[in-house]
Amino acid sequence: MNGYPSEKVFVGFVVDTIGLVRNTRALKGLHPTLDAEALRLVNLLSGRFTPGRSNKRPVAVTYTIPISFPAIAPTSKKLRKRCDSSFTANTR
């Protein structure tokens, strides 16, 4: 839709033995700004996980989750011009 990315950023991370999010990384990104936002959102989840268990002991678990960003065209002409040049030059 008008050259704006509307897919998913896949974020990989580890939930450690106390439920904290560690080692966040964008495994499949769309645009540097969207990738950074996806990482920020996943880091906000730190401490909200229950650690995995193996033999009744807490263990670190690796996760990969998709974060969707809908394609929304900017409404103002000034913002549209700035976004058009940014997204068309930096999309993959």
Mind explaining what this structure looks like?
The protein is α+β, with helices and mostly antiparallel strands. The chain has one domain. 28% of the residues lie in helices and 33% in strands. The protein has 2 helices and 5 strands. The chain has helices at 32-43, 77-90; strands at 8-15, 21-28, 52-54, 57-59, 61-68. The strands form 2 sheets. The chain has a 3-stranded antiparallel beta sheet with strand order 2-1-5, covered by helices on one side. A two-stranded antiparallel sheet has the order 3-4. The longest helix has 14 residues, at 77-90. It starts with 7 loop residues before the first strand and ends with a helix.
User: What is the spatial order of strands in the main beta sheet?
Assistant: 2-1-5
Number of helices: 2
Rg over alpha carbons? 17 Å
Low-confidence stretches: 88-92
Q: Structural class, from helix and strand content?
A: alpha+beta
The helical percent reads 25-40%
Query: CA-to-CA gap between the ends?
Result: 15 Å
Mean pLDDT, to the nearest integer, reads: 80
How many extended strands?
Answer: 5
Question: Strand percentage, roughly?
Answer: 25-35%
Largest sheet: 3 strands, antiparallel
Structurally, the number of domains stands at 1
